[in-house]
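Q: My labmate handed me this sequence with no annotations at all. I'd like to see what the chain might look like in three dimensions before we decide whether it's worth expressing. Could you predict it?
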Amino acid sequence: MIYWTLFLGIALISALVFGPMGSQIAEDRQRSPVEGLMLGLIFGPFGAIAETFLPKGSMRPIPSQTHLPEAWEQADGSR
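A: Here is what I predict for the chain of 79 residues:
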Protein backbone atom coordinates (compact mmCIF):
# COMPACT_ATOMS: atom_id res chain seq x y z
CA MET A 1 0.00 0.00 0.00
CA ILE A 2 2.84 2.40 0.74
CA TYR A 3 4.18 1.99 -2.81
CA TRP A 4 0.96 3.36 -4.32
CA THR A 5 1.08 6.35 -2.01
CA LEU A 6 4.69 7.00 -2.96
CA PHE A 7 3.90 6.63 -6.67
CA LEU A 8 0.92 8.99 -6.48
CA GLY A 9 2.97 11.54 -4.53
CA ILE A 10 5.76 11.50 -7.11
CA ALA A 11 3.23 11.72 -9.96
CA LEU A 12 1.51 14.71 -8.33
CA ILE A 13 4.79 16.55 -7.74
CA SER A 14 5.88 15.79 -11.31
CA ALA A 15 2.60 17.16 -12.69
CA LEU A 16 2.87 20.31 -10.58
CA VAL A 17 6.44 20.94 -11.75
CA PHE A 18 6.37 19.91 -15.41
CA GLY A 19 2.85 21.16 -16.27
CA PRO A 20 3.68 24.86 -15.87
CA MET A 21 7.14 24.24 -17.31
CA GLY A 22 5.62 22.76 -20.46
CA SER A 23 3.23 25.70 -20.67
CA GLN A 24 6.10 28.19 -20.47
CA ILE A 25 8.13 26.31 -23.08
CA ALA A 26 5.11 26.25 -25.42
CA GLU A 27 4.53 29.97 -24.97
CA ASP A 28 8.21 30.70 -25.69
CA ARG A 29 7.96 28.65 -28.89
CA GLN A 30 4.77 30.51 -29.94
CA ARG A 31 2.50 27.51 -29.42
CA SER A 32 -0.62 27.11 -27.32
CA PRO A 33 0.23 27.22 -23.60
CA VAL A 34 -2.67 24.82 -22.91
CA GLU A 35 -1.01 22.25 -25.18
CA GLY A 36 2.25 22.55 -23.23
CA LEU A 37 0.40 22.35 -19.92
CA MET A 38 -1.39 19.16 -20.93
CA LEU A 39 1.78 17.53 -22.24
CA GLY A 40 3.62 18.44 -19.03
CA LEU A 41 0.81 17.25 -16.78
CA ILE A 42 0.30 13.93 -18.53
CA PHE A 43 3.82 12.96 -19.54
CA GLY A 44 5.90 14.88 -16.99
CA PRO A 45 9.50 15.56 -18.06
CA PHE A 46 8.98 13.72 -21.34
CA GLY A 47 6.12 16.09 -22.23
CA ALA A 48 8.24 19.17 -21.50
CA ILE A 49 11.08 17.77 -23.61
CA ALA A 50 8.68 16.88 -26.44
CA GLU A 51 7.32 20.43 -26.40
CA THR A 52 10.87 21.70 -26.87
CA PHE A 53 11.32 19.70 -30.06
CA LEU A 54 7.96 20.55 -31.65
CA PRO A 55 8.13 23.13 -34.47
CA LYS A 56 7.43 26.76 -33.69
CA GLY A 57 3.81 27.80 -34.05
CA SER A 58 2.30 30.92 -35.51
CA MET A 59 -0.13 31.86 -32.68
CA ARG A 60 -2.24 33.83 -35.17
CA PRO A 61 -5.97 34.24 -34.59
CA ILE A 62 -8.36 32.41 -36.87
CA PRO A 63 -8.98 34.64 -39.94
CA SER A 64 -12.76 34.18 -39.84
CA GLN A 65 -12.86 35.67 -36.33
CA THR A 66 -10.46 38.49 -37.16
CA HIS A 67 -12.29 39.99 -40.14
CA LEU A 68 -15.89 39.52 -39.03
CA PRO A 69 -16.85 43.23 -39.09
CA GLU A 70 -15.33 43.61 -42.58
CA ALA A 71 -17.42 40.69 -43.79
CA TRP A 72 -20.55 42.38 -42.44
CA GLU A 73 -19.68 45.59 -44.27
CA GLN A 74 -19.14 43.69 -47.51
CA ALA A 75 -22.48 41.91 -47.13
CA ASP A 76 -24.27 45.26 -46.70
CA GLY A 77 -22.57 46.65 -49.80
CA SER A 78 -21.56 49.79 -47.92
CA ARG A 79 -17.90 49.51 -48.90
